[in-house]
Description:
The protein starts with 5 loop residues before the first strand and ends with a helix. An eight-stranded parallel beta barrel has the order 1-2-3-4-5-6-7-8, surrounded by six helices. It has one domain (6-227): TIM Barrel (Alpha-Beta Barrel), CATH 3.20.20.70. The protein is 46% helix and 16% strand. It is α/β, with parallel strands linked by helices and 228 residues long. The mean pLDDT is 94. β1, α1 and β2 form a beta-alpha-beta unit. The structure holds cytidine-5'-monophosphate. Cytidine-5'-monophosphate is lined by residues 9, 11, 35, 115, 173-174, 183, 185, 203-207. The site of cytidine-5'-monophosphate has 13 residues, from β8 and α9.
Amino acid sequence: MNRNPIIVALDFETAAEASALVALLGDRIQVYKIGIELYAGAGMAFARELRSQGKEVFLDMKFYDIPETVRRAVCQVARAGLQFLTVHGSHGVMRAAVEGRDTSNLQLLAVTLLTSFDRQDIEDLGYPCEATDLVDLRVRKAMAAGMQGIVASPLDAARVRRLAGAGALLVTPGVRSAGAAKSDQKRVATPAEAIRNGADYVVVGRQVTRAADPVGEVDRVLEEIAAA
Ligand code: C5P
């Protein structure tokens, strides 16, 4: 496990709001996730700004496009010196991403299946299988394609760790401390459970970003993890 396994998801509309939280958290947090909302508002300029402050950036763009487009876009992200990038766990997409990464230090993470998907969504895709079967298949494909890691639900973390092996990077969003508001997340576990189940990093969003005392919340999560 990392010394500090928390990645804070900067789910804000503007760079100003995101920067204010980064400044408030100071040295407590080293890795920040930029999702599609903040990317739409502040773009790569903000990612570069975080890099210039010595922070690591997890660009959660979940790329899904034709291979040549994915390859070229991943190449751009790698050139910008970012640390983590998500792409969908579809075979052609992952292979193109691995080509685009080339020999850079960018860590490519596969999104196996959106955790908001239920059985009906999977049926609608035309796959006659359970969510866990699809996740497992995509984990195997991701590792075979040369991806560095997997984004998984904390409830799948132990199984995904076994399938992906000790060398894979495992990142789990969908975590909440006991007693914290679940918001729209249905399948959650505590950050300590996620780490115990094999996660390298936990992504924490609203529990910190919407807290009255974000610093206090980060410290609370760190203490919970240390105690586990
Ligand atoms: O606010 P909360 O902690 O629920 O946010 C978690 C972050 O992780 C969000 O940025 C969301 O996009 C992302 N995420 C998630 N669940 C997944 C995959 C990604 O919550 N299954």
